[in-house]
Amino acid sequence: MIAVSLGFHLLVAALFWDVSSSSSSHVDPSGYIVFCPCMGRFGNQADQFLGALRFAKALDRTLVLPHWVEYRRAAASSSMQIPFDTYFKVAPLLEYHRVISCRHSWMTSLEGVASG
């Protein structure tokens, strides 16, 4: 069920976030895959990331690296967003496929493109 839900969300992002019409030269004309690793703790999030990376490569789209979600014991409902590169180096991923941090400056330049 989780894999189906994740696959559906990735497919929706892949189909509807087409940025090829943008005039900006630094925008990937193939598009982007964006996902939220918000199900489970680190192991589940890492598994979702690996699936999203394979999916992005198969579709030849750039993967936007999400933040990791850390849950704090002090409050059951509190969580923190930890940048991807806090735990992993991005450069080795680039040898496999195109990835970009969600903290990258292009996010602000795509606001109008992604929303329509």
Count of runs of 4 or more consecutive helical residues? 5
What is the first-to-last residue Cα distance?
31 Å
Helix content: 40-55%
Mean pLDDT metric = 77
The biggest beta sheet is recorded as:
3 strands, parallel
Total domain units: 1
Round the Cα radius of gyration to an integer and report it: 15 Å
How many beta-strand runs?
A: 5
What is the chain-wise order of helices and strands? Answer: HEHEEEHEHH
**SSE-based structural type:** alpha/beta
* Percent strand: 15-25%
The outline comes out as: globular
CATH class: Alpha Beta
The second-level CATH architecture is 3-Layer(aba) Sandwich
CATH topology: Rossmann fold
Low-confidence sequence ranges: 11-25
Strand order of the largest sheet: 1-2-5
Family: Belongs to the glycosyltransferase 65 family.
Keywords: Carbohydrate metabolism, Disulfide bond, Endoplasmic reticulum, Fucose metabolism, Glycoprotein, Glycosyltransferase, Notch signaling pathway, Signal, Transferase
Main location: endoplasmic reticulum
Subcellular location: Endoplasmic reticulum
Overview of this protein structure:
With 116 residues, the protein is α/β, with parallel strands linked by helices. It has a single domain (32-115), classed as Rossmann fold. Helices cover 41% and strands 16% of the residues. The chain is built from five helices and five strands, in the order H-E-H-E-E-E-H-E-H-H. The longest helix is centred in the middle third of the chain and has 18 residues, at 42-59.
